Amino acid sequence: MSSNVRRPYDPAVRRAAVVAAVMAATERLLAGGVSFTELGIKQIAAEVGLARSTFYLYFSSKTELVLRLVEALHSPNWESSEGTPVDLEAITEAYRTGIAFFRERKLVLAAVLEAAAYDPEVGAAWEGYRRKFVQREVGLLRAEQAAGRTPAEVDAQAAAEVIIWGGFQVITHHVTTRGPERDDIIAQELAANQYYGVYRRGVRG
Amino acid sequence: MSSNVRRPYDPAVRRAAVVAAVMAATERLLAGGVSFTELGIKQIAAEVGLARSTFYLYFSSKTELVLRLVEALHSPNWESSEGTPVDLEAITEAYRTGIAFFRERKLVLAAVLEAAAYDPEVGAAWEGYRRKFVQREVGLLRAEQAAGRTPAEVDAQAAAEVIIWGGFQVITHHVTTRGPERDDIIAQELAANQYYGVYRRGVRG
DNA sequence: GTCAAGGTCGGACACCATGTCCGAGTGAAC
DNA sequence: GTTCACTCGGACATGGTGTCCGACCTTGAC
Question: Among B97, B190, B86, which residue's Cα sits nearest to residue B141?
């Protein structure tokens, strides 16, 4: 670390910079209206200013590029389920945040969804991404049930899958195909659906 | 290797028979564990007993084959929204039927979902398929609101999208990745979620 | 039995994408 | 000036799609 002061470029840093440049270039090209499937390595490399063969010095395949894009969708904020209040307003706000998050990354999101459908590796990565949310949801639900606030008849696993899988689909489809005009309304409906449909199922609101 | 399809006199009938044979062969190959993307025209043609070039006498492209597969997912039963009672048991039963329907066709369903993600034409067809359900749901919701049984604050369009888009995702993902063991539980959760989350939102059950 | 026509075969082609490989060039470090 | 790491750019192998066409049946008409 301290011995190579004379080198202007730390190889690892430089490498990371190139990787980031490739990802940025990909997003830029996607912004031009091309779908990820239509996008060839040739075009991506050209956009960064690299030879096509040089691309393969940084990514072993197109699949690996997408896997990096999946990583770019991770947000540290969502990891903890602690301090998550179960009330309608808080849930609505969480959905607003989530929608805004994906809207900012909608091009990458669309590319990932596209690749996840036909590339098993990407599919597994995306599945793992969602699994975290399902598990967190199951935990929250069980806690609510233990506290007697959510009916014990609710199947926590199935309910969590319905909420997360369904919610992801609504958000991703909405964000990748429409403008932000109805973001708030969608957030409210998702939240109300979750709150009255699961957390306070059959309870007067 | 000659065609194993009998030749009825009527050219149109014979043509339809070949088309059907190709679709059946595709499903047969998918049953072998190959994904639709991996499946080449060459293999499909060979499975039917046709030359690859002959395939193109019946389908202009792989896309057209998928579009026919989308059509194969249509069920005449679902078109009418008349006589649909809004009670928890009826909704649960409807979900059970839907899940069973897609489970029987899960290979075709998986192929369609795969292609819809990267082929714009297929994507549009699948989008149209779902749109019918959304519209039907909006109609039902508005009627319930007019009758004063569903809160007026519910945004019918957004709620319908949440229910249909989300429900489709849950059902398709469940059916294409898991066995039938939990079909009933999933149906119950979807139904309860819809009933208490939208139709009788905030009403004691 | 002959013959024309519709339909099929099978392979060649053009095209394009991925991923591999390698010799030649370039620029910074020493 | 030499070395070394990196990059370039193009050739290759491979495999897919969709087109095209001449050589073949098989069928039905006569």
Answer: B86
Give yes or no for CB of B52 within 7 Å of strand D.
yes
Give the mutation candidate from B114, B122, B165, B175 for the A interface (greatest A CB count, under 10 A).
B165
B74-199 carries CATH number 3.30.70.1170: no
**A49 C-beta less than 7 Å away from strand D:** yes
Q: What is the mean pLDDT of residues A181-198?
A: 98
The pLDDT of residue B79: 65
pLDDT tens, A102-133?
A: 999 999 999 999 999 999 999 999 999 999 99
Q: Which fold has domain A75-199?
A: Tetracycline Repressor; domain 2 (1.10.357)
The per-residue pLDDT for range B98-120, each reduced to its tens digit, is 999 999 999 999 999 999 999 99
- Chain B residue with minimum CA distance to A182: B158
**Chain B positions in Cβ-Cβ contact with residue A189 (cut-off 8 Å):** 154-155, 158-159, 161-162
B11-59 and B74-199 share one fold: no
Residue ranges covered by each domain of chain B: 11-59, 74-199
Q: How far apart are CA A46 and CA A50, in angstroms?
A: 6
pLDDT digits (tens, 9 = 90+) for B12-61: 788 999 999 999 999 999 999 999 999 999 999 999 999 999 999 999 99
Average confidence (pLDDT) over A60-75: 96
CA B94 distance to own-chain centroid: 14
Cβ–Cβ contact A155 with B under 8 A: yes
Nearest CA in chain B to A201: B196
At the fourth CATH level, the homologous superfamily of domain A11-59 is Homeodomain-like (1.10.10.60)
Separation in Å: D12 C1' and B124 CA:
39
Contact B98, B168 (CB under 8 A): no
Give DSSP secondary structure letters for A82-134: TT---SHHHHHHHHHHHHHHHHHTHHHHHHHHHHHHH-HHHHHHHHHHHHHHH
A47 CA vs C14 C1’ separation (Å): 27
Question: A198 contacts in B (CB within 8 Å)?
Answer: 192-193, 197
Task: Report whether A88 contacts B201 (CB < 8 A).
Answer: no
